[in-house]
Amino acid sequence: MQKILNFIDGAYCEPEKNIWLDNYNPSNGEVYSKIARSGKTDVAKAYEAARSAFPIWSNTTIEDRSRILLKIATLIEKNLIPLAEAESRDNGKPLSLAMTVDIPRASSNFRFFANAITQFASEAHESIGLNTMNFTLRQPIGVVGCISPWNLPLYLFTWKIAPAIAAGNTVVAKPSEVTPMTAYLLGEICNEAGLPKGVLNIIHGTGPEAGQAIVEHKHIKAISFTGGTKTGEHIARTAAPMFKKLSLELGGKNPNLIFADCDYDKMLAVTVRSSFANQGQICLCGSRIFVEDSIYEIFKSDFVEKVKALKVGDPFKTETAMGALVSKTHLEKVQSYIALAQKEGGKILFGGKQLKIDGLEKGYYLEPTVIEVFDDQCRVNQEEIFGPVVTLMPFSSEAEVMRMANGVPYGLSATLWTSDINRTMRLSKQLEAGIVWVNTWLNRDLRTPFGGVKNSGVGREGGFEALRFFTEAKNVCIKYE
Ligand SMILES: NC(=O)C1=CN([C@@H]2O[C@H](COP(=O)(O)OP(=O)(O)OC[C@H]3O[C@@H](n4cnc5c(N)ncnc54)[C@H](O)[C@@H]3O)[C@@H](O)[C@H]2O)C=CC1
Ligand SMILES: O=C(O)/C=C/C=C(\O)C(=O)O
């Protein structure tokens, strides 16, 4: 059976303790590879490789760093089909999604930061009349840790690694133990692109063992993490007393605010996508749908009609719109929320049942699920489900919908559907979210700041924000005569 090995100092290697985890294919529930279960000693080895590589990499010219990153981007593009197939097999997502979203975005992440680093500049402040000049050096931090989740595996793994190495850091990175395959394949691509050994080190294993060892390592000075809010809280508790720089991209419970004056057909099509893309396993999915009461009934029936038409099935088939959920544990978590919704008085308008797909009976398939709820404070409307489940509620005024939209502990994204520019401005300012989309969803320009407020995280990724995170600002003050 294939082994997913660590990638340390430019070479693949087994974990020190020779212990392995099972890697499941969610589409058929079968174990299809073994994952290195690494611990402290593996992380220490990865750190040593990264530490040795740092003096050379941090002094490598911007042009050379950029050239290597561009080469990685090109190689990811060249390997689109094998990478997309690996991602789909590991995660359960439709192959079509991996081909058009996950892998192209992984390549764009490297291409974007290869170019961004050539434009990254620092400031100078002249103290006029005092004969003093201050300028800011933006220096790489050293060895940094990048920890990513299972929902968009290579997409989010590279979203952290690309800016980290573009800025001159060296990295110890850990993908999710649930979806490690494409991160494993990235090692070979980095070697082929000429990335010097030790610049990127990839450790596999569980969060509490390998992940915790990265966060606890006293010389890894910055941690960039994407994942669940509880895990983020735990990481912050470990890293904050060690004065590490932290970027935390956490959960969401994002509202969709649909006003009667919107472009209805466009809104309907995009709302189906923002609800169920990637089986609803994107932190940006709009899981709470609020609809102005004059169009609530018509929306309800049109939406359910469209959701019924979504084809759930074999991720490798072209007609599949929704594949399998990522794991049995996750499927059970999502199902427990569907059961809770019924206990709380919610009405299932469609879905809610596990599906058995011919030939893939042990896969983790779930119908897309639409629940009408009557109290915005019920648990299914407050807690992150992170699956193909959305709630519907009507509203009668801006004030009411804003109270409900902002009435959760999360604040990642919000989507507003309206043709009124004044309302757009008013509500965009009032929404408690790091990202507001108006008449669109998951429309990404990689230069923009990306992140959440409240329990959705700390810090911003994207563009120069990411390059600022992965560098330390040092002021140099020169007094001249
Ligand atoms: N981007 C997002 O918003 C995501 C949210 N989630 C949410 O989190 C819930 C739990 O999913 P999990 O797979 O358990 O996500 P998680 O947050 O535990 O995992 C994300 C990453 O963190 C690592 N990790 C876990 N514990 C760690 C620790 N103590 N120190 C360092 N790294 C650690 C994991 O190995 C993985 O690489 C999901 O049901 C979902 O609600 C999950 C994945 C992504
Ligand atoms: O950067 C993006 O485009 C999307 C990021 C998505 C997540 O962070 C997530 O789903 O966890």
Automatic annotation (TrEMBL):
Gene3D superfamilies xrefs: Aldehyde Dehydrogenase, Chain A, domain 1, Aldehyde Dehydrogenase, Chain A, domain 2
Annotated active site: E249
Keyword Zinc: no
Alphabetical UniProt keywords: NAD, Oxidoreductase
GO molecular function, one term: aldehyde dehydrogenase [NAD(P)+] activity
Pfam families: Aldedh
UniProt keyword annotation of ATP-binding present: no
InterPro entries assigned to the protein according to its UniProt record, in alphabetical order: Ald_DH/histidinol_DH, Ald_DH_C, Ald_DH_CS_CYS, Ald_DH_CS_GLU, Ald_DH_N, Aldehyde_DH_dom
Domain Aldehyde dehydrogenase, first and last residues per copy: 21-476
Homology family: Belongs to the aldehyde dehydrogenase family.
This protein's name: NAD-dependent aldehyde dehydrogenase
The organism of origin for this protein: Constantimarinum furrinae
